[in-house]
Amino acid sequence: MTPPDPRYLATAIEVVTRAGAIQRARFGSDVRVDKKGAIDLVTEVDVEVERMCRALLGERFPDHDILAEEMGGVATAGRSHRWVFDPLDGTTNFAHGVPIFCASLALEIDGRAAVAAVYDPNRKELFTAEAGVGSWMNGRRLKVSTNATVLESMLVTGCPYNIHQKADEFLKVFGQVLKQARAIRRLGSAAIDICWVAAGRMDGFWEASLKAWDMRAAALILEEAGGRVTGMAGEQWDPYEGHILATNGVIHEEVLAILRT
30-61 burial by CB neighbour count: b if 16+ within 10 A, else e? Predict the structure, then answer.
């Protein structure tokens, strides 16, 4: 695979680090919070960061499409490049003063992720990837863990925004995994969750109700670190289908078997 144009990764890094600076500057201040659903929040920071991203990308790559959480986006006929952006992954954490959130940006070329950047401003950790080249955290090459069983593994998951309607379904799956794993964590940012699997801090992540901007960048980072990404039934992963299993690869089949029970 031909490496992507280096301008793409440089731009992705610039966007997410600028986003992180805005997030950190506003974190803990009196930020306006609105509701998109009963427990689905949006802050003025989400919107401010997305506008910054759209302005920068629109100026630098006017022939590229943009899909982002707060203002949406459509595929334009004849365009092969689309940026997929989450301006504040972990909005609920941010709104409650919990310092686990990030900005996440990926570029798709002909429907395939080509570059990715995720920036965690609280830990000053920049995760990046280029398809076919590799993935890094602050310039250090990433590699997934080698834990070979679920019993040896620490897994991470997330709750869907419709958890109140699907609590029994979620708790059934959670309980099945909990019975067999060393530990399960719930951090509140899917992008950070998946990046931590890429970094070997976690061994696997699953979630059943996500959007493409939540996971597009982090999934490429994980794959380039040697991990495996599929749907929760083991099918080829589609970021627009909303569910994902992302692991170090070694425990993938075992986790799939648990999720199927």
Answer: eeebeeeeeeebbbebbbbbbebbbeebeeeb
- Token readout for 104 is 């996440």
Task: Encode pLDDT of 65-101 as tens digits.
Answer: 999 987 777 767 668 999 999 999 999 999 999 999 9
Q: Name the nearest CA neighbour of 222 among 143, 165, 113, 154.
A: 143
Distance CA 144, CA 226 (A): 6
**Distance from C-alpha of 234 to C-alpha of 238, rounded to nearest angstrom:** 11
Q: For every residue of the chain, which 3-state class applies, written as one string?
A: CCCCCHHHHHHHHHHHHHHHHHHHHHCCCCCCEEECCCCCEEEHHHHHHHHHHHHHHHHHCCCCEEEECCCECCCCCCCCEEEEEEEEECHHHHHCCCCCCEEEEEEEECCEEEEEEEEECCCCEEEEEECCCEEEECCEECCCCCCCCHHHCEEEECCCCCHHHHHHHHHHHHHHHHCCCCEEECCCCHHHHHHHHHCCCCCEEEECCCCHHHHHHHHHHHHHCCCEEECCCCCECCCCCCCEEEECCCCHHHHHHHHHC
Residue 42, pLDDT score: 67
Q: How far is residue 136's CA from residue 43's CA, in Å, rounded to a whole number?
A: 30
Q: pLDDT-based confidence at 261, cuts 50/70/90?
A: confident
User: Can you give the pLDDT at residue 39?
Assistant: 42
- Radius of gyration from C-alpha coordinates of the chain: 17
Cβ-contact 103, 16 below 8 angstroms: yes
What mean pLDDT comes out for the span 42-69?
A: 93
